Amino acid sequence: MSTLQKKPAYVVAVVGATGAVGSEMIHLLEERKFPVERLVPLASDRSMGRQVTFGGAELDVVALHPKALASVDIALFSAGGSVSAEYAPMAAAAGTLVIDNSSTFRMEPDVPLVVPEVNSATAAGWRRRGMIANPNCSTIQLTVVLKPLHEAAGLTRVVVATYQATSGAGGRAMDEMLAQIRAVFAGEEPENHIFPHPIAFNCLPQIDRFLDNGYTKEEWKVIEESKKILGLPDLCVTATAVRVPVFIGHSEAVNVSLERPLSADEARAFLRVAPGVIVEDDPATQTYPQARRVAGSDAVYVGRIRQDVSQPRGLDFWVVADNLRKGAALNAVQIAEIVTARYL
Ligand code: A2P
C-alpha cells in the first residue's frame, strides 16, 4: 500500500526516456507544468552518455536498475512489457505511483485502466496495487468518442477497423519505415526487422502476435480494454487492427449499433460538447480528421459522421488522434495530474 502523500512537487521518473513515447512524456510534463521537483530519465545501457532536455537543463540518462527507482514518487513506464513486468511491481511495492503504458497489467481487475475523459473516478483505486495502467493507443481514442455516444443513445455493438501509425511500434519502427521508403526509391528491396513485412507503401493487417482465436493481440486489447474502460462488460465489440505507412496519428473507421435512435446531427451535437473531442465534419468543404494534421495536438478528432443505412439505429464515423500524445504520453500525464489533484 503506497504511502505517497500530496506534495508541492514530485520526483518523477520516465522509464524509456529515450523512446518515442518516453520523450513525449518528458515534453508534456514540461508543457503542462506538472509539478516536477526532479526528473529521472531512465533507459537501457545503450543510452548511457545520452542526455534529455527538461526545464532548460540537460539531464544525463540513467541506466535502469532497481535502485534507480528509489525515492521516486511517480514513475511513468514506457519501455515495453518485459521492463514493466520486472520493475513496475517493485517500484509500486516501494511506494512509487506507477503509471504503466505497457499491456502487462491492464486487464488485472484491481489495476485501474484509465482514460481521464471516460472513467477518471476509477483512478481512486490506484493504491490497491500502487499502479494505474495506461490503455492501448487505439483504445484510448476510441473510448473518448464512444462514451458520449453511449450516454446519448446506449451502445450495443462496436465494429472498428484501425489504421495505425508506425510510431506506435516505437522509434526504431519509424526508422525502419523511413529506411524502407528510401530503399524503394533507390530501386532496392526493403528490409524488415521490426515489422513482419515491409510497411513502406503497404498495409499490414497484423499488429502484435496472433492469438489462437484468429485475432491479433492488438485487436484483442481494443476489444477487452474498451469494455473495461466503458464499464460495459457485455458490450459487443470486434476489431481489425491494421498498420499503415504513417509516422504519427492513428485513424479508425468505426460502426456502432445503438439502443435508441440518434441522427448524425444529434451525434455531432453530443460530440461537440464531449470532453477531449473535436468534431471536424463538413463534406461540403471536404473537411474530416487526418493523421497528418493531428500530430502534435491533444484532442481526439471525429468526422465523417453518418447514419448507417444497413441498420435502423447505427452510425458510422472516423476517429483520429496523435497516438504518441493522447494515445500514450498525454493520457499518462493526465492520469498523474488526476491522482495528484484528487487522490493523494
Ligand atoms: P534505449 O533507447 O536505451 O533502448 P521505443 O518505444 O521508441 O522503441 O523506446 C523504447 C524505450 O524503452 C527506450 O527509451 C529504450 O531505451 C527503453 N528500453 C528498452 N529496453 C529497456 C530496458 N531493458 N531497460 C531500460 N529501458 C529500456
Q: What would your notes on this structure say?
A:
This protein is α/β, with parallel strands linked by helices and 344 residues long. The protein has helices at 20-31, 81-93, 116-119, 137-153, 171-185, 217-230, 264-272, 291-294, 325-342, and strands at residues 10-15, 36-43, 51-54, 57-60, 62-63, 74-77, 97-100, 131-133, 155-164, 236-243, 250-258, 277-279, 300-307, 314-321. Strands 5-2-1-6-7-8 form a 6-stranded parallel beta sheet, sandwiched between helices. The protein has a 6-stranded mixed beta sheet with strand order 10-9-11-14-13-12. The chain has a two-stranded antiparallel sheet with strand order 3-4. α4 crosses α6 (217-230) and α4 crosses α9. The protein is globular. The model has no long low-confidence stretch (mean pLDDT 97). The structure holds adenosine-2'-5'-diphosphate. Adenosine-2'-5'-diphosphate binds next to α1 and α5.
Distinct ligands, ions and cofactors found in the model = adenosine-2'-5'-diphosphate
Helical percent range? 25-40%
Mean pLDDT: 97
How is the main sheet built?
6 strands, parallel
Succession of helices and strands: EHEEEEEHEHEHEHHEEHEHEEH
**Low-pLDDT stretches:** none
